[in-house]
Amino acid sequence: MSTIDQILEGEMFDESAWLEIGEFCAYLRVDRTWVIELVDAGVLEPRGPTPDTWSFPARALPRARATARLVDDLGVNLAAVALILDLIEERRRLERKLEELERLLER
Amino acid sequence: MRYKDYYEVMGVPRTASQDEIKRAYRKLARKYHPDVSKEKDAEEKFKELQEAHEVLKDPEKRAAYDQLGANWRQGQDFRPPPDWGKGFEFSSGRAAGEDPGGYSDFFSQLFGDGSPFGGAARGGGAGAGRAGRAHRGFAAAGQDHVARVEIDLEDAYRGGSRTIELRSPEMTPDGHVIVKPRTLRVSIPAGVTEGQQIRLAGQGSPGIGGGPPGDLLLEVTFRKHPLFEADGRNVTLTLPVAPWEAALGETVAVPTLGGSVDMKLPAGARAGQKLRLRGRGLPGNPSGDQLVLLKIVLPPDSPQARQLFEQMKREVPFNPRADLGS
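Output (structure tokens, whole complex):
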């Protein structure tokens, strides 16, 4: 167990990094079939023509993890998760816009 | 330890049917799920809800819990009865990879590992994060935990270290699971953006049956900043300018995360116009930009200001409503 004296160095992907499907699955510790299901449902958008050659942006890792949580905790299907995650992103974009406009208006 | 009123947490009467409990869980889960919710303390409330649901959804656990009696109140000092769990038959084998953690001491002692109900719990230790691996075939590995860590934009700009407090499950020598606080100091890399995850390998749940431990994933969020808004690596600042600074294209001092810089406004700059200070956002490859949103502010009312406005009114032909046909 770590003590407070240690400073733990974590691993963080560059925003622009891409991961091969095997690597992507290893980080999530899930089967490839589950990732394929996520792609079919529109949760993830890979680069490449076939599952063997697919790669995914590293920034999709949190999205895939959130998917697992939403499916398990809310009992929703993958198509609904894709919709939920898209709406959350849209909400964030609108919140930023609103914040910007509020700053313009406030004295 | 403190008594937990699971019926109160779920907002159902003690007489609620299993279907009512399921519906209450679904409704509250949508409200407090940390991935969806904007509620304050959503993470904490969701964890409480999961714990209550874990007990009330299972007829055996619910019956045992009900036997404690209806007179206990939420938060009241509580000791489990010595014959706790006697007379119940248990059908709940441990689901591989599931991990009783992040729940209260009350839950751990009554329903956690080492209790007569041992091991059917699932939970999210440091922030309700589960990669769901138990369902997907890597049963021996410990669970990943997700913890949200809120940092200042300045920390993301400069990097640094951050102390975080977590609550993690730990097995005692006699086989009980207790929830222990744990403090970690974590390095925050410069250039981290909101929503990015910092992965601390091996800092999640211990593995099962000799499997490797899970990881701790720190999901970064930014504390609200008085001046800047971040979007990826770009930051936006709303800059108040005087009408004459905008009209004449003056050079003004602009705060950035790296300190103040001078910026020449274009002559005739408009309110709401966005100017770009390239590379002045969060560092990276490439670094983000700082966007400067202009806000034109009138000077406070004074005889001099009035006099000058009167002069402009007389001498500057301008109808701001010309396009409205007036």
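The longest strand of chain B covers residues 160-171.
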